[in-house]
Specification:
Layout (H helix, E strand, L loop, with lengths): L4 H16 L13 H9 L3 H17 L1
Length: 63
């Protein structure tokens, strides 16, 4: 069966993601981690916010 244009596009995206990206999942408890959840809900980009915090931590440890 021939692949449709959409199937080819999805395959390219999946191949790219496997080669160049890593997925990191965190599960937060609605009771114990409520403060973290509330803070993440305040920012526009959760990924950007988390990456910024990690990079700041890296820089602090280099000193």
């Amino acid at each position: 069966m021939d692949e449709t244009r959409q199937q080819k596009r999805v395959k390219l995206i999946n191949d790219y993601n496997k080669k160049y990206t890593k997925t990191v999942l965190i599960r937060l408890n609605c009771n114990n981690d409520k403060d973290i959840i509330e803070q993440l809900d305040k920012v526009d980009s959760k990924m950007g916010y988390i990456k910024e915090l990690i990079r700041k931590d890296i820089q602090t440890k280099k000193r």
